[in-house]
Each structure stands twice: as structure tokens, then as C-alpha cells.
Amino acid sequence: MGLLRHREVKCLAQGHTADKWQSWDYYYYNYDIIIIIVVFVKCLLCVRHCTKRWGGCKQTGLGTVPAPHGAYRFNPHFTDEGAEWASYTLGVFICLKCSGIHRNLPELSRVKSLQMGHWEETQVKFLAQHGNLVARGTYEALVPAYYYQPNQADCQVLREQWIRAKYERQEFSSPEQKLPYSNGQREGTLWKRGRDQAQYHPCRFLLSERDSCLKYFSKQDSREPKMTIQVDRINANFQPEKTGQAHGLQLTFLQDNRTRNLFVYHPDGKEIVDWFNSIRFVQLHYLKVAFPKARDDESPQTSPSKPGLPFRSQPRDGFKRRWFTLDRRRLMYFKDPLDAFAKGEVFIGSREHGYDIRRGLPPGVPQGHGTWQHGLTLVTPDRHYLFACEMESEQNDWFSTFSRVIEKPMTPQDHASEENRSSLKGESINPIY
């Protein structure tokens, strides 16, 4: 019986219907003993092929089920890792990371491993009748265009609040559901990192759809804001590792023609994610007003940034270590990852406008610094910029990231950003030749 249940769950994870595995029912029941003997003998013959990755036999798979490829089409948000677990109360297949979040919702979701779990017949049938596609039609039927749907690479707080919003709060199941991040105004306290200090202090923040801006006040009872930021200039990204806060949010924007960073957090995960999506809501509204033909997926200032730490080259001083961030088409560098202001930035346009990225450094230029031997050359219409990475994998990652940006056609918002960049003050990245 245990072997039968195990095969049925694997069959469902691979996308087969209940009818298909039921048609095999007779075969497995009548040859149960023979199958067990054959599997046992095969396992003994290929013990040397056992691997740590699956924790079982490489040829027979006894005691394990490899990541089910058929589950990929069931779970579009976590396709890279595959579904190794399933919730037998919600009827969905989930990845390993999300299984831990589901365990924290015992009243709503009970999970089992597809590899090691013991599955009852009723649980298998429930999975067969539901699955991720059915669940999406129920729990994700009304997800707003501005709401950020995380993937497997996103941080814990984004994935957890996405799961809780769907299954616990059911925010996207009913049109009568009032979303806390869609009323056009939000006010509350966030802990902000000091510009010249490493300490966080509580500040009052006010987000207004009517004024298309985000304001923050240094004190709770302050009447005048310490700073007013236009929403079309904000890019919000979660950076828990960079900030040292599990709910750390980085706000990047232009202030006095210089790129500025604000680092904030809130101890409550739901609160900080609601702020994040509230900013996206106001930005999408502004985008629709400024660019009526813009699509819902073109919200320009909420794209994930690409952080990294290669060297950059100067004509006289050689390579210096700097922290780089690629925010859409803006490449910025900082002396320290938590600097309030960028020391310089470069706009990266499309290939048809004369931009390109090349592996390696030009002839005659020293190939990197010390162990940083993997060079990159960024070509712009006016100058070339040289960078060096320590690892070849990092070089490949940055090359792919630059290539995606350069190959993508520029939008009207991108052209507007390029015009704003021409008036930037502060240190610029020096040309090489």
C-alpha cells in the first residue's frame, strides 16, 4: 500500500490525472510482492550509485522521488527548484523553501514531502482533483497588476507575505476584498538608517497618490517633512543581506540631481510589504497619467536592482574596489554598500543607440588587479568603462545582466531618464580611452 501511494503521488506531481494512475491500480496490487523484490534486488546492485543529492539510489530511486518535472507547469513561480513538497489541505505542489512557510500556517496548510512522506488515498485523490492551476484560479484570481509576485530568488519576507496574502488573508479571491495598499494614501512609522550613522531611528512616512510623492518626517509630531520624494523617481527593493535587517527596504531616488539611498525597515513583515506594494500602486497610477499608452507591466521604478562588487578602472590610479548597483538602465557605484549618495553613475541605453558590453579589457590595459582577472568593457557613445571581477561566474553574471539591458528597446520613460542624467552633478565614472 505504501509503495502504491508513493507512486500515485509521484504520478500526480508529474502532471498525470487521477484516471491514469487509477488505471494502474490493478497492476500494482497484484504484482506488489514481485515489484518489491525486484526493487530490492536493483537497489542492492547499484548501492555504489547512491548520491547525496537525492539521498537514495540513483537508478531505482527507492525511498526518494527526484524533483518532478511535470510539477513545473503547475507551479509557475518556483519553476527553477521544482515542487518537492505538497500541501494536502490546499491541494498545491510547493518548493522546499515555501514548505517551511506553509508549516507556519498549520490551521490552513499541512505539508508532506513527495520523496519521504506517507500518503493516504484520500490525500492523493484531493491532490488529483485540485493542483496549482486550480488553486491559482481561486487564490490568485484578482491579483492587481502592481502587486509584486515574488519568485524563488526573492527574500523570505516577500515570499512569506505572498503566501499569507493568498491563503491566510485571501486578498485576491473576492472583488469585495479591500486591499490595504490600494487606497491612494498611507501613513505610518518606518525605521530609517541615518545618512552618516549606522543606527536606525523611527520616522513618520506619508505616501500620497494625489501629490504623487513620498514624504518623511524626522519626528512624529513634525509639521514640515524632512524630505519630499517624487514617486516617479523611486525604486524600492528589498535588501535584507545588504542592510542587515530581515525586512530591510532600500529606496533609491534622485535628490538635487544626485542619486540618493534611503534604508528603512519595519519589524512587522506584513507592514513593510504593504508599504512596498503601496509605492507600486501610486507609481502605476502616476505612470498611467504621465504615459497613457503605458502597459501595466511597465512600472518603471520598481524593478529589482543588480548589486555586485567588481573593481572599476581609473586612468591614473588603476583599479579601485567599488560597490556597483544596476537599477534598470542606471549603473551606479558606491564606496560602501550603504552609502547615502552614489559617487557616480552611467546611463545604459540600447544597442541601436551605440551601447555594447564586451568580455575582457582592451589590448594594452593590465588585465585586472591581483586575483580580479575577469574584465568587462562597457561601451557607450561617448566613452568606454572598464571593470574587473574576481570570479568568472560573476563576470558571466554581469555580462548577461548588461546584455539583457542593452538588447531591450528603450521606452519613453527611458529616454526621459537619459535626459535627466545629462544634468547629474557629482563625481562621474572616468573614461579610460
Automatic annotation (TrEMBL):
Single GO molecular-function term?
Answer: phosphatidylinositol-3,4,5-trisphosphate binding
Q: Which residues form the PH domain?
A: 183-284, 303-407
Gene3D superfamilies assigned: Arf GTPase activating protein, Pleckstrin-homology domain (PH domain)/Phosphotyrosine-binding domain (PTB)
Q: Which Pfam families match?
A: ArfGap (PF01412), PH (PF00169)
Q: Where is this region: Disordered?
A: 295-314, 410-433
Arranged from A to Z, the UniProt key words for this protein are: Cytoplasm, GTPase activation, Metal-binding, Repeat, Zinc, Zinc-finger
The entry's localization annotation reads: Cytoplasm
A cellular component term (GO) from this record?
Answer: cytoplasm
For this UniProt entry, what is the primary localization, expressed as one broad class? cytoplasm
The segment(s) forming the Arf-GAP domain are 84-180
Residue spans with biased composition (Basic and acidic residues)?
Answer: 415-424
- Protein name in UniProt: ArfGAP with dual PH domains 1
